[in-house]
Each structure stands twice: as C-alpha cells, then as structure tokens.
Design brief:
Layout: E1 16-19, E2 26-29, E3 37-39, E4 46-48, E5 56-58, E6 75-78, E7 81-95, E8 98-109, E9 113-120, E10 123-129, E11 146-148, E12 151-170, E13 179-187, E14 190-196, E15 202-210, H1 212-218, H2 242-267, E16 271-280, E17 290-291, E18 295-297, E19 302-310, E20 315-325, E21 331-345, E22 348-354, E23 356-364, E24 367-376, E25 383-391, H3 397-425, H4 436-448
Antiparallel strand pairs: 1-2, 3-4, 3-12, 4-5, 6-7, 7-8, 7-12, 8-9, 9-10, 10-15, 11-12, 12-13, 13-14, 14-15, 16-25, 17-24, 18-24, 19-23, 19-25, 20-21, 20-24, 21-22
Helix pairs in contact: 2-3, 3-4
Length: about 450
C-alpha cells in the first residue's frame, strides 16, 4: 500500500506481550514477526523474539543503566514516515585510551520497516541501510575514498565498536560485548558507515545529519535536547557555500572598481599648471616664507598634486605649503619633509630617504590660486629645490581602500570556514596530518557539491 494513498492512514504498530523467562516481567514487542531480538526492560536479558519458547540468549547484569533520550514507544513522523521507537543500544569506541560512546535508536514502521537514529554529543543522524553497495576501491575500512550514487565520501575514521547496553527490540542478533569493525566516510551532511563482523559480514548504512531541535520537534519530546558539542564528522558547515559566493561577489566588485579606476585615469587631464625653481639658505636673515605667482585651475573640481624635488646632501628640508584660492581665500595646508642621508660603514655603502616627494590635495575647485611656501632646515649650505603643481591627477589610493574593504570579509569568512573544517577533521584519523592545503581542497570540493 503506498504511504500517501488517498484516505489511508498508517496503521498503528501491532503490539504483543510475552513473559521474560529470566525474571518474569512482561516484555512488549511492537514489531512482532520482524524483531529478531528483544531485551527485557527489567533484567536486560536478551531474548529470542522468534522463539515460541522465548529463549534467553544473554543476561546483562551491568550495574549502570542507560536511559534512552527518546523513550521506547515514542512515535513521530520522520521524513514523512510515521515511526515508533522500539529499541536502543549504547556503543563505544576507544581511541588513544579515550572512550567515546554514542546511542543508536531503532525505529519501526509496519510498511516501511526499520530506520535508525544515532546520537553523539548532541549530534543526530537519520540512518537507513543501503540497498546497493558503494564503490570501495580499497575495500571496507580502507582510507581510500568511497563513491555512492555519484557522490564521493572521504574516509574519516576506523575503529572497533563495542556494544555496552541494549534495550527494546532489534531486527538483528544483538549481544552486549559484541565487537565490530566500523569505518565512517563523510560528505557533509551525509556519512557512509560500514560495519564488519568477526565473520566478515559487511553492512553499509547512510546517515544524514539532523539537529537535536528537529528530533525533539518530530517526537514531541519535553524540555530541550542535549546541546551539540564541537563539530561532528558530517555536520554541515554554516559556511559551506558562503566562501565561494562572497569571493564571486568580491571578484565582481573588484573588476567594477578596476574599470572605474581605468575610466577615471583616462578622463583625468593630468595638466601641469605651475612649476618653478627656488633656493633656500637656512642662515640667511629675514623672512623665509614667500608666495608664488598666481596660476589657474580650470574645469571641474579635481585632485591637485604638489611635487617637490630637492638637492640634499646628508640634510633635510621641511616645506610648509598652503594652496590658497585668490578669489575666496580658502586655503589647503600641507607640510612635507624631505631628507636624504648616505655613507659607508663596515657593511658597505648605505643610504636612506629621498630628495623627491609628492602630495595630493583632494577635491580642489577651479579658480585662481597661489602657493605660500615656508621652508625650514638645519644651518648649512643652501638647498636648491623645485616645485611643480598638477591639476586633475588620477588618484589610485581609493582603489586600494576599496580592495581592502572587499577582501577583508572574504578572507574572514574563508578563515572561519577553514577553521570549521579544521575542527571537524581534527577529530578524525587524519587530524594530525591534514594540511592547510588539504583543508582548502575539502572546502572547495564541498562547494562543488
């Protein structure tokens, strides 16, 4: 019967009870006929659900009990399918002396069969068994990438998992203390997992990441879900597509800014309007400041460049400029210092400074102008210098500022994305060997997907 057939509802799970032969407690079976094992909730004995005599397969006498986050019998609609939680097991792996435990939950629907949920440190996955095998060039458990339905999954971790606690019913032979070899291959938000038993039987499953909030909403659970800790192996990055998108926009705006700079450069007249040579004698008496002849700035309001060139010999020259509008009296004050020193020491010849300098006065309106110049220097010989004024010069500093403002958020987002991936892969078998280039390639491949 199709799940969404008109007028049809998902039938309630058929429930049957039996008596535990170990402790006499009543054991409820919700997937009777499909469950292979069922666990007594009172004594945790593992029972054969398909044996009419209800044989005890294993007795579990651990002092510590694990309370499932989702109670047995809880129902909810997951991926459009109404399911009931019928079983839970606790499993663990040991890595470098540290034990990591997680919970696995068995869901049952009489028409769709079994589905599964896993939970580790507040991270959840909706899991289903594969109907077709992935392409595994290196075999299950190898570190070679695995391909499934055209998608590449990278090896994340291999370990040996131990079942430490079971409750409810299971569609497979479950035993406390059972060991299986597990391997995870990730392509966020999905993870491919293989389990290999001691009899070399391999089972593949596909998990898709879910948040605790979604699980709590699906099953109408009270309170708040356990907070997610750290970055999980197949947790989707919040920056998955952001770096590519922001770099795309950054490139577009950089091209536009470059085009504007080229247009501005072509349109700029870059016209010299004044030039003259002067000599400054620091020991001369009298007023050292003076004004130049008047010159005219025509056209539009535009930047004006004042260039200075001085003959310096282990000396310095300071010039206090004032560009003054003759008609309005508006003044633009700039101070410039030139210095040039040279010599020789045990490391050879050296020099520092320059006898050339330029400064741009932005947005100077047209009109008649002159310069007031006041020179200063140390007492010594006279200094020859020249002054040149050019109007409507192309200015490129704004492009650097614009490029910086565009690149800063792009670099920041990229760094955060790379840091997220770094945190993910630090928890893998490849955490100590994954290079910055490897992280970058993972981000790029994730964007491609």
């Amino acid at each position: 019967m199709p799940e969404n057939a008109p007028g049809k509802e998902v039938a309630p799970v058929h429930i049957r009870s039996l008596t535990c032969p170990n402790c006499g407690a009543t054991v409820t079976i919700r997937s009777f006929g499909q469950a292979v094992n069922v666990v007594c909730g009172s004594c945790q004995s593992i029972l054969d659900a398909q044996d009419p005599k209800v044989q005890v397969l294993q007795q579990f006498k651990a002092a510590i009990r694990y309370e499932p986050l989702i109670p047995l019998g809880t129902r909810g609609k997951l991926r459009g399918v109404l399911c009931e939680l019928v079983g839970c097991q606790r499993r663990a792996i040991e890595v470098e002396g540290v034990t990591y435990s997680w919970g696995e939950y068995v869901l049952f629907n009489p028409y769709k069969g079994f589905r599964y949920l896993t939970e580790f440190d507040g991270h959840w996955n909706y899991v289903s068994l594969l109907r077709s095998l992935p392409d595994t060039p290196g075999g299950p458990g190898s570190e070679a990438p695995v391909t499934y339905l055209g998608e590449t999954y990278r090896h994340f971790q291999s370990a040996q998992a131990n079942t430490s606690y079971v409750i409810g019913e299971f569609p497979w032979q479950v035993r406390v203390g059972e060991l299986v070899d597990v391997a995870d291959y990730v392509s966020p938000p999905r993870v491919l997992s293989s389990e290999t038993t001691k009899d070399k039987e391999v089972t593949w499953s596909l998990g898709e990441y879910m948040t605790g909030a979604d699980i709590w909403k699906t099953f109408s659970l009270p309170g708040e879900p356990p907070p997610a800790v750290g970055v999980y192996e197949n947790q989707p990055s919040p920056f998955a597509t952001t770096p590519r998108m922001i770099w795309t926009y950054c490139g577009i705006f950089l091209v536009l800014a470059l085009a504007l700079m080229v247009v501005h450069s072509v349109m700029a007249s870059d016209k010299q309007v004044f030039s003259n040579n002067y000599t400054f004698d620091p020991v001369a008496t009298g007023e050292h400041s003076f004004v130049t002849d008047t010159f005219e700035l025509t056209g539009r309001t535009a930047p004006v460049k004042i260039e200075t060139s001085a003959s310096l010999n282990n000396s310095w020259l300071y010039l206090d400029y004032a560009l003054i509008n003759q008609d309005t009296g508006q003044a633009y004050d700039v101070g410039r210092e030139l210095s040039y020193y040279y010599g020789r020491d045990e490391d050879g010849a050296w020099s520092e400074g320059s006898g050339r300098d330029s400064v741009i006065v932005p947005a100077v309106p047209p009109g008649h102008y002159y310069l007031r110049i006041e020179p200063e220097s140390d007492p010594g010989g006279s200094i020859a210098y020249s002054v040149r004024v050019t109007q409507d010069v192309p200015v490129y500093a704004w492009f650097g500022v614009t490029a910086g403002l565009l690149l800063l958020p792009a670099l920041l987002i990229t760094w955060r994305s790379m840091n997220f991936e770094h945190m993910r892969w630090q928890e893998s078998d490849h955490g100590s060997s994954l290079s910055l280039g490897g992280i970058t390639s993972l981000i790029r491949s994730g964007d491609d997907e």
